[in-house]
Amino acid sequence: MNIAIESSWKTVLHNEFEKEYFKELTSYVKEEYAHHTCFPPENEIFNAFSYCPFDDVKVVIIGQDPYHGVDQANGLCFSVKEGIKHPPSLVNIFKELQTDVGKEYPDSGNLEAWAKQGVLLLNATLTVRAHEAGSHQKKGWETFTDVVIKTISDKKENVVFLLWGGYAKRKVKLIDTNKHDILTSGHPSPLSANRGFWFGNNHFSKCNEILLKNNKEPILW
Hints:
Keywords: Cytoplasm, DNA damage, DNA repair, Hydrolase. It comes from Galbibacter orientalis DSM 19592. The chain has helices spanning 7-17, 20-35, 47-51, 88-101, 112-115, 141-155, 165-169, 190-193, 203-213; strands at 38-39, 59-63, 119-123, 128-129, 160-164, 181-185. By secondary structure, the chain is of the alpha/beta class.
């Protein structure tokens, strides 16, 4: 696994790459990619960091696992590559955007534009075997991404964390709530959204209100 992680992240996370768990994780991921079809492509595993340098992080959205279908995952949580059909959770994210901020439903499900504005789109697990949801969980990725969240909490101020669903909400223990803002809701998946736990959360407008209050540029969702 090529740890092609953006330089500002390398600076704040350099200790992690030397730890035994990360070396074991690297070996495991190399083996998986050598013998199985895995997603995202190896050169896109760290895209969340590439598009959103540490110094630029204003908002953090936490997902659980990359999409495991062909050509879907691009290293950013909830995002898909250009021209790919939008998965159900992403459809519901865009529907909420429509009602919350009046944004027209987009053709592209690629969320790179968000990342480039300072939105870290972080999956807790950064890789997955094709068509096997959760197949790379509990191999070390969660340890690494928990450190990422805690590092942001410790070293930055006034970051907005959007925690969608039970899994993401459990990450609150890593975040200093005196320094940062946290918005929580149900997950945008159909199961949660259709029960009334997602639509109407207004997270996109609320997030921008918080950013403006803290003299930061709002996100063009």
